[in-house]
Amino acid sequence: MMDALLRALRPLSQPPTAPGWNHAQMVELLGDTPLRPAAVLMGFRDAEQLRLVFTVRTDHLSSHAGQVSFPGGRTDPADGDAVTTALRESEEEIGLDRALVTPLGYLDCFETISGFCITPVVARIAPEASYRPAPDEVAEVFEVPLAHFLEPANLKRYVMEYRGHRREMVEFERTGHRIWGATAAILLNLVQRMESA
Fold first, then answer.
1. How many Å apart are CA 39 and CA 109, to the nearest integer?
2. Tens digit of pLDDT for each residue in 83-107?
3. Where are the domains positioned within the chain?
4. Which Pfam families match (predicted)?
5. How far apart, in whole angstroms, are the C-alpha atoms of residue 143 and residue 129?
6. Among candidates 148, 37, 39, 43, which has minimal Cα distance to 94?
7. 2-196 belongs to which CATH class?
8. How far apart are CA 71 and CA 86, in angstroms?
9. Cross-strand pairs, 157
10. Which residues contact 67 (CB under 8 A, 6 or more apart)?
């Protein structure tokens, strides 16, 4: 499965640039306003069965409270690139030692309702890595086998209304966790890239 994953990625030497693959939909919803750069870490635990790492955001946060997400956040001016942002944010949010993370490549950029253009950084996490969630940001860290997202029966599609527009959405469920929004869309991009690689 690792070979299929690697074939689906953009190489580290060719990071994706804005606009995101969903740009047309976001322009319809938000207008053509400048978006702030951000990055997330799609970290795969380096084990026999590839497992993706997710966080559950704490309930008291001002945005996306209680939602499942990848570790990550907005790009700081000092970061320099998306890999640095993803590694820094992962250290801050879940205590993941960046020395135990090996970046592998990128997925396509994704634009969000909250005004960000996210670069997903795909990486391998060493088996000995541990997580220490920052209690003010992260309520839980959990892992899900990649195979779960490759099973078509686990993908749910639905339509929601937003500011008078109909939006096609996707979500996945796993062990009581609802994975939706930007996180589910980024996962779908990975699945589609793996299927066509």
1. 9
2. 999 999 999 999 999 999 999 999 9
3. 2-196
4. NUDIX
5. 13
6. 43
7. alpha beta
8. 7
9. 170
10. 56, 57, 180, 181, 183
